Amino acid sequence: MVRRLVLAALVLVALALLTVSFRSPTSGALHDLQGAGASALRPFQVAADRVARPFQDVYDYFSGLANAKSENAKLKRELREANAQLNANVVAAARAQELEKLLRFEQGNTFPKDYRPVNTSVISYPTGSFAKEVTIAAGSSDGVRLNTPVVTADGLIGHVTNTSPHTALVTLITDPDSNVPSVDVTQHVSGLIRQGQGSSLIFDRVPKADSIRRGEIIVTRGTVDRRYPDIYPYGIPVGRVESVGESDIESYLTVQVTPFAQLDHLDAVAALVPIKKR
Fold first, then answer.
1. Rounded to the nearest 5°, which phi and psi values hold at 185?
2. What is the homologous superfamily of the domain 180-259 according to CATH?
3. pLDDT tens, 3-36?
4. Which residue among 78, 98, 192, 266 is least packed, with the fewest CB closer than 10 Å?
5. Which residues, at least 6 apart from 117, have a Cβ–Cβ distance to it below 8 Å?
């Protein structure tokens, strides 16, 4: 009880001296008395600091931990944004390269005359392993019609089988019902490009008597008889002969062709619209 009274008295004296100190000079008897009071209260101040220090340390720890978590979340967010921007730049760069290749093809000597390109992009892809159709972002309002050939800068991919004002459905040359009259540019051997195994093609209906070798280029044959115009103009690159085989029980050669166009990675394409109405 006595200790409590002494402690209370010392606190009151300290407060009184603190109040007076703001109104007193920096020397004299009163100043000396303030010094003595401060010395008397020094042990209590040290004890208070020692008691408060662990709590201050705990507060600083959790405060630092919260700040670290916040900074970590910020860095992760910035990293995601940077990666997203990088991916967008990569996609844009790849698309720019495809468009540049397409432009060179359209300005080259192999681009079919009497046709104009409608440059567009693929907006939907096959939804199953047996689906062989894609949708492009160009339609009847752009001049795209049924049977319009569609190409990439590398070669033929198929023809339009359905249209709307702003989109069109393209059946790929790997579809089981696709038949593309084609020719070997070196030996002038004619045949039909049809679906092969996987992503390959078959150059079908090539007689055994004809000569065709690995590495030769196959292009669309075009119209042979004006009475029966073909939907594909002459000279669109289709693929390269991968292998040639024959069987005793077959009447034709087995000619496997690798398509030039990457049919499983389609982006920038062009629909070939006739300049003159047919």
1. -70, -20
2. Rod shape-determining protein MreC, domain 2 (2.40.10.350)
3. 566 556 655 655 665 565 555 555 555 555 555 5
4. 78
5. 102, 106, 111, 270, 271, 272, 273
